[in-house]
UniProtKB/TrEMBL annotation:
Domain EF-hand: 91-126, 130-165, 226-261, 271-306
Primary localization class, coarse: Golgi
Endpoints of the signal sequence: 1-29
Name under which the protein is recorded: 45 kDa calcium-binding protein
Source taxonomy: Eukaryota, Metazoa, Chordata, Craniata, Vertebrata
Length: 355
């Protein structure tokens, strides 16, 4: 029996060896697929030099949509990553109660509107500091010679390269004042970026941005002038009758998508309801049914203390079940999804444990 199996085993081993050689040759003959690596590199470069659509701690996105993460951003600050859906619930509860104790300055186990206002301003300042730190890195990406100034043409080359264009061809076309061949969408983005670039160029205008001016270009919330510019852009996009102010119908009429089923209808209804409440309760400060540029600018200014107090009151009202105008540990844990983006169950049983 052993003597008959030996040749078969040898043959099997030989076949496996031969198959391995074929697979190895095939793998070495095929060109390596670096497209995903290149794509990641391009996306990273584009993210470094393009103004972000989303600004932490600012109520509206660049496109005029409400910032859905705002309450978490101004309550958690840099700790937002600590409350992922797969985080251990007990650890998350404990962390949330640590934050509660920091907000509760007078240690009476209740958070007042003034305490929440102070905390919101502190967390907003954290986001500001983070943006300044990131800007230093991003500025180096567009200022390779390190002279501390970047021209619009230098930036345009970097932007188009991030879109897949040849750096040499773009640079040569700009130097020779030739028209660049770009698609319509890219051209529109370029024109918007150029307007924004000029706005960020502080007097005396020289079309060269310093590191501080580049920060205003990427993060308009850091500059009063750029904040005004962002407000004008949002009003321009939403203003249907051209009066340079917003009515409630204009503010809630952004197209969300095609409603094809009940779920889509519910999403649209919720979206309209959120915008209506924001317009009436927070943006339209004199409640005359019209939002002016000044009102929208005050609303979007992340360092506006009056707005921070209004936000604090609104955040407390969301979870204030006993209607005492304060937040207590049980309420914060019960409404944890509003404050952290994740649900933390067993709030009542665990509150004393976590404290």
């Amino acid at each position: 029996m052993v003597s008959r199996q030996a040749p078969l085993c040898g043959l099997a081993a030989h076949c496996l060896w031969f198959l391995g050689v074929i697979l190895l040759m095939d793998a070495s003959a095929r060109p390596a697929n670096h497209s995903s690596t290149r794509e990641r590199a391009v996306n990273r470069e584009e993210n470094e030099i393009l103004p972000p659509d989303h600004l932490n701690g600012v109520k509206l996105e660049m496109d005029g949509h409400l910032n859905k993460d705002f309450h978490q951003e101004v309550f958690l600050g840099k700790d937002m990553d600590g409350f992922d859906e797969d985080a251990e619930p007990r650890r998350s509860r404990r962390k949330l109660m640590v934050i509660f104790s920091k907000v509760d300055v007078n240690t009476d186990r209740r958070i007042s509107a003034k305490e929440m206002q102070r905390w919101i301003m502190e967390k907003t300042a954290e986001h500001f500091q983070e943006a300044v730190k990131e800007n230093k890195m991003h500025f180096r990406a567009v200022d390779p010679d390190g002279d501390g100034r970047v021209s619009w043409d230098e930036y345009k080359v970097k932007f188009l390269v991030s879109k897949g264009h040849s750096e040499k061809e773009v640079a040569d076309a700009i130097r020779n004042h030739e028209e660049l061949k770009v698609d319509e969408e890219t051209q529109e983005v370029l024109e918007n970026l150029r307007d924004r670039w000029y706005q960020a160029d502080n007097p005396p205008a020289d079309l060269l941005l310093t590191e501080d001016e580049f920060l205003s270009f990427l993060h308009p919330e850091h500059s009063r002038g750029m904040l005004k510019f962002m407000v004008k852009e949002i009003i321009r996009d939403l203003d249907q009758d051209g009066d340079k102010q917003l009515s409630l119908p204009e503010f809630i009429s952004l197209p969300v998508g095609t409603v094809e089923n009940q779920q889509g209808q519910d999403m649209d209804d919720s979206w309209v309801k959120d915008r209506k409440r924001e317009f009436e309760e927070l943006i339209d400060s004199n409640h005359d049914g019209i939002v002016t540029m000044e009102e929208l600018e005050n609303y979007m200014d992340p360092m506006n203390e009056y707005n921070a107090l209004n936000e604090a009151k609104q955040m407390i009202a969301i979870a204030d079940e006993n209607q005492n105008h304060h937040l207590e540990p049980e309420e914060v844990l019960k409404y944890s999804e509003f404050f952290t983006g994740s649900k933390l169950m067993d709030y009542a049983r665990n509150v004393h444990e976590e404290f």
